[in-house]
Write a structure and sequence with these properties.
Structural class: alpha+beta
Number of strands: 15
CATH class of the domain at 66-93 and 109-293: Alpha Beta
Helix content: 40-55%
Shape: globular
Distance between the termini: 34 Å
Oligomer: single chain
Radius of gyration: 22 Å
Strand order of the largest sheet: 4-3-2-5-6-7-1-8-14-13-12-9-10-11-15
Mean pLDDT: 86
Largest sheet: 15 strands, mixed
Strand content: 15-25%
CATH superfamily of the domain at 66-93 and 109-293: Endonuclease Chain A
């Protein structure tokens, strides 16, 4: 029996190592996977098969994704907004816009109104009020849709709106919403909502889809009002979780030209999940009116993109910083490039502050996150641990620009997940978010480099072990 086990282990190790060396495109990531499959006999190989194989290199994966996402090319579909180049107050922002337009498809657009939503009750009260006023359609997609009070209220609104002739289309991630009961899905479909899972967990496709999740949070109402950011449909935002308490998050309401770009992302994802192309018309992509004067850029990233758009955005924002960088993120697990960029900014004298929750919904993520802190503290980065759990994905640079969205600072958001961030070129909004960030520091513990070095050997070992598994996170 032991001989059989060793034979299977050696064969599986050689096979996995061969694939890592042949298809691995990032040395640090490849080394991480080699350590995982070496240190976890059999289990490490299984983890690599599910989470590590770069399926984008394989022809069948490319063909499948290209065919299913052909609507990413909107050249032949109605286009009702002006995407001409707009003036920037500073050349560095113009260059960043050019980079992100090439990386993520969408240029910055003027003529938008942005409303910040900072607390769960406020966010959902605003969303429900908007849903009640819908006249034509409601399009929504969320990574997590959970049973509870919020979903019950939403279902009641949907039933009334459908009776009024409003069309409802819903996308949910099959993995993130695994707790969504069939009873709720049947109710939604029974009242007439069009509901589809993204990348469903089927036996014959699970190995090629499990590692690629749709992490976006998008709600479009009548094509003229939108919500996006980090909030999911979960009661954790309005009532205390048994472990982490009530979650906080940052969300935004949008009006104006940029809704066209955000809605196109939903339309592409909806086609991918349903094969329905009927809504890619002027009825669902109406001519947008300039509503405000805020310059906004939508950043879309995913495994079907040629570029790591979310990573490019974060690196670009750090690269243009001259005075300050504020980062709030629950999963701060940067890759080597991002880690070095942050250290370089601090070494230049830029005020770099990072806020993370003291506790996490994932022990592996927590220890992997903390494994980077000693190195960052040594270069002058200020790190704060928040007593409550903040799910916000927020970065503010020089109190002039800010991003709010679904993208975490981790490998998964950079390489494996479909993500959407909103980059806001507006000093007034950036200043408001900066003030909120600084006020929140009163509820944080500031980490001291000398004290942090004294953490126990056990803690350091747990951090080191978790860091090996960072490619999975």
């Amino acid at each position: 029996m032991l001989t059989t086990f060793y034979t299977i282990y050696i064969i599986s190790f050689i096979w996995a190592a061969f694939n890592i060396l042949l298809y691995g495109n990032r040395p640090a990531r490849s080394v991480g996977w080699l350590l995982i499959i070496f240190s976890l006999p059999i289990a490490g190989v299984i983890l690599y098969i599910v989470f590590g194989i770069n399926r984008k290199k394989f022809k069948f994966f490319r063909l499948n994704f290209n065919a299913k996402r052909r609507l990413y090319d909107f050249k032949d579909i109605v286009h009702n907004i002006d995407e001409d180049e707009h003036p920037f107050s500073k050349k560095k922002y113009a260059r960043m816009n050019d980079l992100l337009k090439q990386s993520s498809d969408f240029p910055a657009l003027e003529g938008n109104e942005v409303v910040l939503l900072k607390e769960g009750k406020q966010t959902f009260d605003t969303i429900f009020n908007a849903l009640e006023k819908a006249e034509n359609f409601i399009h929504m997609q969320y990574y997590i849709v959970e049973n509870g009070e919020l979903l019950t209220r939403m279902l009641d609104i949907f039933e009334r709106k459908i009776a009024e002739g409003v069309e409802i289309r819903i996308l949910y991630d099959a993995f993130g919403s695994y707790g969504l009961k069939r009873k709720r899905l049947k109710q939604l479909k029974k009242i007439g909502a069009h509901v589809f899972p993204i990348l469903p967990l089927k036996f014959n496709t699970i190995l090629s889809t499990l590692n690629y999740r749709n992490h976006r949070k998008i709600l479009i109402i009548d094509g003229t009002l939108a919500f996006t950011g980090g909030v999911n449909i979960s009661d954790k935002y309005i009532s205390a979780d048994s472990i982490l308490g009530k979650w906080s998050d940052t969300h935004i309401q949008l009006k104006g030209l940029v809704i066209d770009h955000l809605h196109r992302i939903f339309i592409k994802d909806y086609y991918f999940a349903s094969n329905d192309t009927l809504h890619a018309t002027e009825k669902y992509l109406p001519k947008q009116a300039e509503t405000g004067n805020t310059l906004v850029q939508i950043i879309s990233g995913g495994p079907d993109h040629r570029n790591l758009s979310i990573l490019h955005q974060y690196l670009a924002m750090i690269g243009v910083a001259e005075r300050s960088i504020y980062i709030e993120n629950p999963y701060f697990i940067p890759n080597k490039a991002l880690l070095e960029a942050i250290k370089m900014a601090a070494l230049q004298g830029i005020d770099v502050r990072i806020m993370v929750p003291k506790e996490s919904d994932s022990h592996l993520a927590k220890y992997s996150m903390f494994s980077n802190f000693q190195e960052l503290l040594r270069t002058g980065v200020k790190i704060y641990t928040l007593n409550s759990f903040s799910h916000s994905k927020l970065m503010i640079v020089d109190k002039e620009i800010a991003t709010i969205g679904s993208g975490n600072f981790d490998y998964r958001s950079f390489e494996h997940n479909y993500e959407t961030n909103t980059l806001i070129y507006d000093a007034e909004i950036a200043e408001e978010l900066s003030n909120d960030f600084e006020s929140e520091l009163d509820h944080c513990e500031s980490l001291d480099y000398e004290e942090f070095k004294k953490r126990s050997l056990k803690t350091k070992l747990l951090e080191g072990a978790a860091r090996i598994f960072s490619p999975l996170l």
